[in-house]
UniProtKB/TrEMBL annotation:
<feature type="domain" description="PAC">
    <location>
        <begin position="357"/>
        <end position="409"/>
    </location>
</feature>
<dbReference type="InterPro" id="IPR013655">
    <property type="entry name" value="PAS_fold_3"/>
</dbReference>
<feature type="domain" description="PAS">
    <location>
        <begin position="161"/>
        <end position="234"/>
    </location>
</feature>
<dbReference type="Pfam" id="PF08448">
    <property type="entry name" value="PAS_4"/>
</dbReference>
<keyword id="KW-0808">Transferase</keyword>
<dbReference type="InterPro" id="IPR013656">
    <property type="entry name" value="PAS_4"/>
</dbReference>
<dbReference type="Pfam" id="PF08447">
    <property type="entry name" value="PAS_3"/>
</dbReference>
<feature type="domain" description="Histidine kinase">
    <location>
        <begin position="426"/>
        <end position="640"/>
    </location>
</feature>
<dbReference type="InterPro" id="IPR035965">
    <property type="entry name" value="PAS-like_dom_sf"/>
</dbReference>
<keyword id="KW-0597">Phosphoprotein</keyword>
<feature type="domain" description="PAC">
    <location>
        <begin position="238"/>
        <end position="291"/>
    </location>
</feature>
<feature type="domain" description="PAC">
    <location>
        <begin position="108"/>
        <end position="160"/>
    </location>
</feature>
<dbReference type="InterPro" id="IPR036890">
    <property type="entry name" value="HATPase_C_sf"/>
</dbReference>
<dbReference type="InterPro" id="IPR000700">
    <property type="entry name" value="PAS-assoc_C"/>
</dbReference>
<dbReference type="InterPro" id="IPR005467">
    <property type="entry name" value="His_kinase_dom"/>
</dbReference>
<dbReference type="InterPro" id="IPR000014">
    <property type="entry name" value="PAS"/>
</dbReference>
<dbReference type="InterPro" id="IPR003594">
    <property type="entry name" value="HATPase_dom"/>
</dbReference>
Length: 641
């Protein structure tokens, strides 16, 4: 430059220690194509300004292309770009230029706006450095432009989104938080602090420990588990209901939600954002509903959307025979798997808002038992339109169904009993008539043919006739027992009845050397049909005599006690006894005998006696041991004086 000291226009030659750097600078001086490549590839515009003649300024072609102009038409004058730069930004450019001129350490670095040829704004980052002579006087200035329009537009869009989100958050009254999982850095908004009764300034400085400090200790473990599930990708968002300690010393409930928004290179969570929503009143309402469900006399259970138990009534545990009552938080599919699996599709429909019910359904339980249920599924809502879970109402109608079945069976039994009675009357009457005719004809035959009485075939006919008559007589007696149930029962003195029967069999008792002991106390009355009671006593006493042992002094002892509104009559002997392991199931069967060597034993007595006992509303139990004796216990209704 004429009249001035030479100026080193390359400001980068100060550091020559690195040979590659030195070589690159040498190439730049030797080969201009390298310089052209750098300015084209690394920048959106390069400029060089003569400060001694400030009107002269060289702008490379890319600068003008970025702004939509033809470089060949644009003069290398500073006025060319000053006419299209934002006037406010131009003031800032000159202010920074002045400071940089006075102090080289002050950077000439700013973002300015240019008006594109088409009218829109182009954002440019403008940087420069003054080149000074040996005396430090500014002579030239080298600068670079970088187009950051896309970045500024993205920032503007982001700013608008943030403003929109802030308006939304203010409308929802949510507390917000941002948490750096790795460093613990945490940022809360003012509403987050208000929820627990503080201003945000009172909580500063805030970290993740701020949240921990005000959280209920019992909820921290649950929160951490849910966070780890979210970090592992098991849940799309972190969501936890937790208690926070308010400034007034009480706890408030918050719904804490969040999600990871950035991850590091190793795939670990970095930044997480979320919200706090106060739900104290909602929890109080829920607790009131839970207590109502627990105390209601009906079988009711409340579930969340994952079918985990929220509440269950005492009746619910009874209906489903659930022993472990600690079910809150447990999955329904774990507590009652057989029912939950069967109703799985119904639960899904209900969680979608549908009310489903069934008036009666047969359920086979895990232990094989059958249970009849009437049930209804109703959704409950956490918000106005959001299903929070479902409520199940259940009634056990098993007993009712069994009563209906019993009524139906009883009706069938009554009809069958009527037909059997009619059949029994017809059979007993007609058979008795035919048997009598056969016996009469056989007798007439013997009268006309007396020599045939000793005929072997004729004797067989006679024996068959007698057996038939006896069998019909037994059948007729059974029919009479079962058709006389409708007769009125009367009060009978048990001791007197035993005494009368004892007197009637005294002769055979003496003959068989069997002692009869009546130990029944006076004044014990039973409800019975007198003829039946006499027959019952006679049968048991004569059987005891018939099956007495010849090897010892034999006896029959009758005693009675009052028990639970009944009279228990015991008839004990020390006779031959019965092998109950072998014969118990057929003891009271018709024509069943257990001592084949005893003459005239037809096996009809116990059958008839059992029918008579049952006809007066009683029952029989038996204890016996072979060659030791037998005790029959007859339970009859007690008739009060």
């Amino acid at each position: 430059m004429k009249g001035k000291k030479n100026v080193d226009v390359n400001p980068f030659l100060g550091d020559t220690e690195n040979y590659l750097k030195k070589e690159l600078y040498g190439l730049l001086q030797q080969d201009s194509s390298i310089f052209e490549f750098l300015q084209e590839a690394a920048m959106d515009g390069l400029w060089f300004w003569d400060l001694d003649e400030p009107e002269n300024e060289w702008m490379n072609a890319k600068f003008w292309i970025t702004l939509g102009y033809d470089p060949d038409e644009m003069p290398h004058k500073s006025s060319a770009w000053q006419d299209i730069i934002n006037k406010e930004d131009l003031k800032r450019v000159y202010a920074n230029f002045s400071k940089h001129s006075q102090d080289p350490s002050y950077p000439f670095d700013q973002i300015v706006r240019y008006r594109h040829k088409l009218g829109h704004t182009v954002w440019v980052k403008c940087r420069g450095i003054i080149l000074r002579d040996d005396d430090g006087v500014p002579r030239k200035m080298l600068g670079a432009h970088t187009d950051i329009t896309k970045i500024k537009k993205a920032e503007e869009d982001l700013r608008k989104q943030i403003n929109d989100f802030e308006h939304i958050i203010e409308g929802t009254h949510l507390g917000t938080w941002r948490w750096n999982v790795q460093t613990g850095e945490t940022v809360f908004n003012e509403r987050w602090a208000e929820i627990i009764g503080y201003s945000l300034s009172e909580l500063q400085p805030t970290t993740i420990n701020t949240w921990v400090e005000y959280s209920h200790p019992d909820d921290l473990e649950k929160s951490n588990e849910l966070l780890q599930e979210h970090f592992a990708g098991k849940t799309p968002i972190y969501e936890c209901e937790a208690r926070m300690k308010h400034k007034n010393g009480e706890y408030v409930w918050v719904l804490d939600k969040g999600s990871v928004v950035s991850w590091d290179d190793q795939g670990n969570p970095e930044w997480m954002i979320g919200s706090h929503q106060e739900i104290t009143q909602k929890k109080k309402d829920f607790e009131r509903n839970r207590l109502f469900i627990e105390q209601t006399p009906s079988a009711i259970a409340m579930f969340d959307t994952k079918m985990n138990y929220l509440a269950a009534s005492k009746k619910w545990f009874e209906v489903y025979s659930i022993e472990d009552r600690n079910v809150i938080g447990k999955p329904h599919f774990e507590v009652l798997p057989e029912i939950a699996e069967k109703w799985k599709s119904n639960y899904q429909k209900c969680l979608e808002g549908e009310v489903i019910k069934n008036d009666e359904e047969c359920i086979e339980r895990k232990d094989g038992t059958v249970q009849w249920l009437s049930w209804e599924l109703c959704p409950w809502y956490s918000d106005q339109n959001k299903v929070g879970g479902l409520v199940c109402y259940t009634s056990d109608i098993t007993k009712l169904k069994r009563k209906e079945e019993l009524k139906s069976l009883l009706k069938i039994a009554e009809d069958q009993n009527k037909r059997l009675k009619n059949f029994a009357h017809i059979v007993s009457h007609n058979l008795k008539s035919h048997s009598g005719n056969f016996e009469m004809l056989l007798d007439l035959f013997f009268q006309e043919n007396p020599d045939m009485r000793n005929n072997e075939i004729a004797q067989l006919f006679n024996t068959a006739s007698q057996n038939l008559s006896e069998t019909i007589s037994h059948l007729n007696e059974v029919v009479l027992i079962n058709t006389s149930i409708d007769k009125s029962l009367v009060s009978v003195d048990l001791k007197k009845s035993i005494d009368e029967v004892t007197r009637s069999v005294q002769a055979i008792a003496i003959e068989s050397d069997v002692k009869i002991n009546n130990e029944v106390e006076e004044g014990i009355n039973v409800s019975a049909i007198p003829a039946y009671l006499d027959s019952i006593l006679l049968n048991f006493i004569t059987n005891a005599i018939k099956y007495s042992s010849k090897e010892r002094d034999s006896y029959v002892t009758l005693s009675a006690i009052k028990k639970y509104g009944e009279i228990e009559l015991s008839i004990e002997d020390n006779g031959l006894g019965i092998d109950l392991e072998k014969h118990r199931s057929k003891l009271f069967g018709m024509y069943k005998t257990f001592h084949p060597n005893i003459e005239k034993s037809r096996g009809i007595g116990l059958f008839i006696t059992k029918n008579q006992v049952e006809a007066i509303g009683g029952r029989i139990e038996v204890e016996s041991k072979v060659n030791s004796g037998t005790t029959f216990k007859i339970f009859m209704k007690h008739e009060k004086d």
